[in-house]
Amino acid sequence: MDPFHNGNKRSSISFGPSQRQPYSKSNYLAGANAPPSVAQDLGRGPSPFGMSGNTTSGSNSKRNSGSDLSAAYYTNRSPMYSPLDFSPPVFSPNHSQLQQARNYAANIPVVSNLMNQSMASVCEYQSHYPLFGLDWSVDDYVCLGSYKEDSRNKLQVLHSNDLLSWENVVDANVVYPVSKIQWVPSQLHPRKLATCSDSLRIWNVNPEERHLQEQVNLSLCKYNRQHPTSPATADDMKVIGTFPPITSFDWNTVDTNLIISSSIDTTCIVWDLQSSHYVKTQLIAHDSEVFDVRFLTKSTQLFASCGGDGSVRVFDLRSLAHSTIIYEPPSSPASGPNAGATTPSLKGSDALLRLEPSPYDPNVLATFAADSNKIIILDMRNPESPILNLEGHTCSVNEIKWHPTKRNVLLSCSDDCQALYWDLNNSFMEINGSDSKSPTASGASLEDSDGDTVMADGGAKANQQEDPLNSNNDKQVCRTLDTPNMMYVNKTQEINNIAWRPQRGDWFGCVSGKKFQNVRVF
């Protein structure tokens, strides 16, 4: 579901079974003659299916699809399964692989007796409204935003002590559907969150007193319609909806007084919460709507944006006279008097909706276009051309999130009712052409080439935690990866949004229809 694109996407929230086209690009569920890889942790419940490394070759990569129809049914009860696992269930060739996968997943008792914590792997919360906005705090509070095409929308704050059940601790009415929610980074008291829709707002949250109140409307302050120290008056509220809508924002993780936002009026605004009128600077960022903007990893000066013109641009607050275009959509060949002209439909397909900088490598970003099933991985050391395309989804991608603690692991969700888990370490190592072991195998801290501190995972996969992309490569060839390491299949409804549990990334949350689900990954 895309709240910024054309109107027909707004009706994509469904409340009944949905039918999808057969997956024809790669056989997710094909097996290979190799021993199974399954691990379980009895203390924490069922673990995900065995993970196998992705492989890429030339401009395209696919796993060996030799099927072994005599393989036993997979018996793991985890809600996530691996299309790369070597002992998949047997499915009939007469039906869609995706539809059979859904039916198979629907028959797995992913949540058994809730009194037995070791067996719980998915739980859900049923809302009264269709949902889109989602974020998960460091102390297991989840904020949800409704998506209704009227003036009766809601913000809901949920909490869980055991991740087995969720309680609605506080809610608030909002006029317009919220396109993004973010908790203040690494801060528990006072507990705050920000939302964007018609305006950029900061909220005070006090679950103990069941209190959720708007602290300040930054958009009103920008236009001098609200005093920074006073709540909005009735006259101020009359102009709500007349400002350019805020499409996205990002709360800086280094300096939480800084927020940057994007708008459909082609501008980005950097907000300083300690400033008298909050606005630090405003700039024209793109030639059309700006759909997302993000601070680069561990930086208070560098940020990147994407928008309707299909480009990704990087800015430096110390020198805003220029920007660096690191990606532009490939131009389609044309001839005749209309050569070079861009049709509205082509422009719409080029529009980039979301931007996700890697939390461990400030040079790597992920993005995707409107109505596209392809995720684009960019490296700023190799501008203009992607280094990797992920094409595992069969319908439009809705959201992407890097794993908070594991390097080069990406989660994506789509209208195909799937959440895909991508471990890109092997692919990056092949792109880099390096087989050497990582100096981070011990799990110690180190600094990358940009001076940023990164934390590496130890363990069996630790040799994949090295910086996989170095600046010595003159030109990278874009490769395609179409098979994820793991996947979670929702039963009937599109997955509209996702969020990792920020502490360890052992769970992720997703919203589809009126449901919020938290899914165990590890």
UniProtKB/TrEMBL annotation:
WD repeats span which residues? Answer: 283-319, 390-426
> Which residues lie within the region annotated Disordered?
1-69, 434-475
* Entry-linked SMART domains: WD40
Question: Which keywords belong to this entry?
Answer: Repeat, WD repeat
Encoding gene (name): YPL247C
Q: Where is the composition biased (Polar residues)?
A: 9-27, 434-443, 462-475
Highest taxon in the source lineage = Eukaryota
Kindly give the InterPro entries that the UniProt entry links to this protein.
DCAF7-like, WD40/YVTN_repeat-like_dom_sf, WD40_repeat_dom_sf, WD40_rpt
Residue spans of biased composition, Low complexity class: 52-67
- Pfam families linked: WD40
Q: What is this protein called?
A: YPL247C
* Keyword Repeat appears in the UniProt entry: yes
